[in-house]
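Following up on my earlier thread - several people asked me to post the actual chain instead of describing it. Fair enough. Here it is, all 326 residues.
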Amino acid sequence: MPFPTRRALVACAAALALLPAASALADTAWPDKPVRFVVPYTPGGATDAVTRLIAQRITEDTKWNFVVDNRAGGNGNIGIDVVAKSRPDGYTIGMGQTANLAINPTLFPKMPYDALKDVTAVSIVASQPVVLVVRADSPYKTLAEVVAAAKAKPGELKQALAGTGTLGHMAGEVLAKHVGFKVLNVPYKGAAPALTDLLGGQTDYMFATPQGALGMVKAGKLRALAVTSAKRLPVMPDVPTVAETYKGFEAVDWKAIVAPAGTPPEIVKKLNAAVDKALAKPATISQLLAEGSTPVGGSVETAAQYIKSEHAKWGAAVREAGVQPE
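Reply from S.P.:
Thanks for posting it. Predicted structure:
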């Protein structure tokens, strides 16, 4: 191969000299139009609420405009696929979570995107455990009593599921493996019918979200036995963690902002800084804590590493439990 001519070298050097300027321009110019914020679930749900909260707080600080776009379906896969296949220019981001970034890639034999390659992490926004609940008139008053009954009657105690592959489902599977009993799952199309049948006595227990369970616990309809976070929830301070009985247990649903792979790093970092500032606001913290969530934040690198580790953790859990999609 011949060496390049002097003219070619000069042209190449001139082009390279323009790159930092272009990068700086992208950093200062973005965003000059509304940013689409994809939510992979229906309006009014927990993910939608957190997305709108963060978008609102960022807008208050920066005056950036966000358009929330709900793309429900596929256990959260459809919305993240929209993000993955969007132009990587900073004008499409999405709110991913444990299901579509860590559980689904192993649960479903065919995924429309690669959770580790087709999207890039921006920030871990918040984490939230699930709560082990039973009917208020249930004979089980502690987590240990539920486990003892499950061991004494293998495969008879029924666990209600808001859906196959949800964090509540996987938390139950991991607990069963952790302490050594067989779980009998009863899947439903959502948390509402699952909780209805739990109240009606068709099932024995459920790992529900704090939002879904808290009102019924306060009303005396359900009894909360344990939360799956490492620490107790401020909104449910009297409810022990699973780890207080079985050391090392933790299962949380986290929400992470992601962008299409290839989005300019300066835009990703600019977004990350805006999210961190929004999460530090007292009003944001109090609202998240009130719903049973914990603000997280942190660097882009930390977010990427966390998603990677959770992808491996829940992938192993799905394989070991032999969970199959509905």
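Residues 1-27 have pLDDT under 50 and may be disordered. That should answer part of your original question.
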